[in-house]
Write a structure and sequence with these properties.
- The structure is a single chain.
- The protein is built from nine helices and eight strands.
- By secondary structure, the protein is an alpha/beta fold.
- β4 and β5 form a beta hairpin.
- α1 runs parallel beside α2.
- It starts with a helix and ends in a 10-residue tail after the last helix.
């Protein structure tokens, strides 16, 4: 599956992009655990036993990471709920009003970019792994998206995260082509980037009836259907389509065409 390839990728900048409800958040959390095994040999170790018994001399420090979403409310309302319902829900602990995530061997800061000090806190930290969840706006779910500055800051902060491999990963539905994610994922990916495109239907836990209902919901918005049902980047058009028969994947050229004289 595409999700497994993303989880096991050794890329410094892996992206996972696909339709709604195709397991992107689950794959993103699984990637934290897989990356922990990769980075563990490079983590510094404790020099003394902890009197409280939390660690022993020569045990490695926790992997430091950040999980970033558009707002902290959406992180709690959507992402945390997905994590709790996943197989990882029993081995992950949330603290500090869902500003921290702990699991064996990892210490993860949770950020909503609506908080004024979030970018400053990221700027002052050093991480081995950073995750950006849905950085493009999604109107029908209330997702506000993130500025390109957040991705660039992530590049800098993993570079400061000590020795060993680093990972700045992104999970998202496709955006409109004018959004900054299209540039970094499709047009001009960073050196070391790898983009994984989930095909519609890969998640076996979504029923045929649910998929049909999703397609029906976007019937009059072919631009949104392309992004959230088909998993393709799209131009965005306001209002209802002039004709319901219009399908962008069939009727819009992939390259600019010059009219014949």
């Amino acid at each position: 599956l595409t999700q497994a390839e993303f989880v096991l990728s050794k890329s410094r900048y892996p992206w996972i992009i696909g339709p709604e409800r195709e397991g992107k958040t689950f794959a993103s959390i699984a990637a934290f655990f897989a990356f922990l095994e990769t980075v563990r040999p490079y983590l510094p170790v404790h020099q003394h036993d902890d009197p409280a018994g939390k660690w022993r001399k020569d045990d490695p420090y926790d992997m430091r990471g950040a999980f970033i979403r558009d707002t902290h409310i959406n992180l709690k309302r959507i992402t945390v709920d997905s994590i709790k319902r996943s197989p990882f829900g029993d081995i992950i602990e949330f603290r500090d009003d869902y500003h921290k995530l702990y699991a064996d061997g990892m210490d993860i800061d949770l950020f909503g970019m609506d908080a004024p000090d979030s970018l400053n806190r990221i700027q002052g930290a050093e991480y081995q792994i950073i995750h950006l969840e849905e950085p493009a706006p999604i109107i029908h779910t209330g997702n506000q998206g993130m500025r390109e500055e957040v991705y660039l800051m992530g590049m800098r902060r993993i570079a400061a995260g000590g020795e060993g491999p680093k990972r700045l990963q992104v999970a998202m539905n496709p955006a409109e082509r004018k959004h900054w994610t299209f540039k970094w994922a499709i047009e001009r990916p960073a050196t070391g980037a790898q983009v994984f495109r989930i095909k519609k239907g890969e998640n076996p836990h979504v029923s045929k009836e649910d998929r049909e209902a999703r397609a029906e919901a976007f019937r009059n918005r072919p631009d949104l259907a392309a992004r959230y049902d088909e998993g393709e980047f799209s131009d965005v058009y306001e209002g209802v389509a002039i004709t319901e028969e219009y399908k962008q994947q069939y009727h819009l050229a992939k390259v600019a065409l010059d009219p014949l004289p």
